[in-house]
Design a protein that fits this description.
HIT family, subunit A; binds guanosine-5'-monophosphate; 5 strands
Length: 115
Amino acid sequence: MGEKTLFSRIIDGEIPAEKVYEDDDYCAFRDIHPAAPEHVLIVPKKVIPKLTDATAADRDVLGGLLLTANKVASLLGIAETGFRCVINCGKDGGQEVDHLHLHLLGGRLLGWPPG
Ligand code: 5GP
């Protein structure tokens, strides 16, 4: 087995993080460098390095990721005011951590387009 990803280590409690939600399949914790008043990373426990590595077998993991974003947005109290979901993929997408994750951002009016 290869080395655990940074996010797997956070999920397993080896690296501290402020978790806001966890179930059997996903873990959500606050980004260490928040880009908005609410900035949470939602991470599938199944390690898929990046979105382009997902296959048809990951359909449920990907669908559940968005439904978990809904759930976490409600928990954070931003479901009504609105929020943004971002998945960075690869170099030009600005992906830093090779463990698929969704950024949930909210708590202020977000600009568009992103830089
Ligand atoms: P990416 O650029 O891969 O889409 O996003 C990775 C995110 O993980 C970045 O927003 C970064 O701030 C966050 N991050 C990196 N290391 C840590 C860490 O050790 N703890 C937490 N909570 N977030 C981290």
